[in-house]
Design brief:
elongated, three-stranded antiparallel beta sheet, 4 helices
Length: 103
């Protein structure tokens, strides 16, 4: 039990904030965009001092990858929602389900 408490405390002490955020907020105020697809992200004021050019390239790669995965998940969820609505339309005959699916 003591070991678990110690591990929890150490984890919170050594926890580092993320290097970037997709949204501007209290900590992340400096707007940047990725070199490849111009995906907008926000960083802290000391970002360029804290990270080398090579590290920034790696972070931007991770941002691009994360963004792409997020879009894929949203697309899959949207497709499932449409399929469910079309199923409800076929079962009930209620055209409102079809209209929502096609919207």
């Amino acid at each position: 039990l003591l070991l678990l408490i110690l591990m929890s405390v150490l984890n919170s002490v050594f926890h580092e904030d993320p290097a970037w955020s997709y949204s501007r907020n209290g900590q992340y105020k400096v707007e940047r965009s990725t070199s490849w697809n111009s995906i907008r992200y926000y960083v802290k004021g000391d970002f360029t001092e804290k990270y080398s050019s090579q590290k920034i390239v790696h972070l931007e790669y991770e941002i691009e990858k994360d963004y792409k995965q997020d879009l894929q998940i949203k697309c899959i969820n949207n497709q499932r929602r449409k399929e469910q609505l079309m199923y409800q339309y076929r079962v009930t005959g209620n055209t409102r389900y079809r209209d929502y699916a096609e919207a």
